[in-house]
Write a structure and sequence with these properties.
By secondary structure, the chain is of the alpha+beta class. The protein is 29% helix and 26% strand. The protein is built from two helices and four strands; from the N terminus they run ααββββ. Strands 1-2-3-4 form a four-stranded antiparallel β-sheet, with helices on one face. β2 and β3 form a beta hairpin. The chain is globular and about 35 Å long. 13% of the residues are buried.
């Protein structure tokens, strides 16, 4: 009985593994766009950049949007697709701002 429970628990953990890893960008460094391309993306969106760093294999932009709201943006390193925008005040992105537009 204990062995069956242990096997079921292990199977559940292994099945959940890919879902837990969705926040990570698993891209070889050779396929990454340069940091300057991330800065151009941010400028094209009207964002003011305080910092661009790497977090969980993704680019992360910290700064403010065109309206002055503090933001943290997760960007895919190869495609420069915006994965997530977190507003520090907890409110959602305003409609019609083009927040997910990628002009690169």
């Amino acid at each position: 009985m204990r062995r069956s429970l242990a096997i079921l628990t292990l199977a559940g953990v292994l099945a959940a593994g890919p879902a837990l890893a969705d926040d990570d960008c698993l891209v070889p460094m050779a396929d990454w766009q340069p940091r300057e391309a991330v800065a151009r993306l941010a400028a094209g969106q009207g964002w003011t950049v305080r910092r661009i760093k790497i977090d969980d294999g993704c680019y992360e932009i910290k700064g403010s949007d065109a309206a002055g709201r503090e933001i943290e943006v997760t960007v895919h390193p190869a495609t420069l697709q915006v994965i997530e925008i977190d507003y520090e005040d907890g409110r959602p992105a305003p409609r019609g701002t083009g927040a997910l537009r990628n002009d690169d």
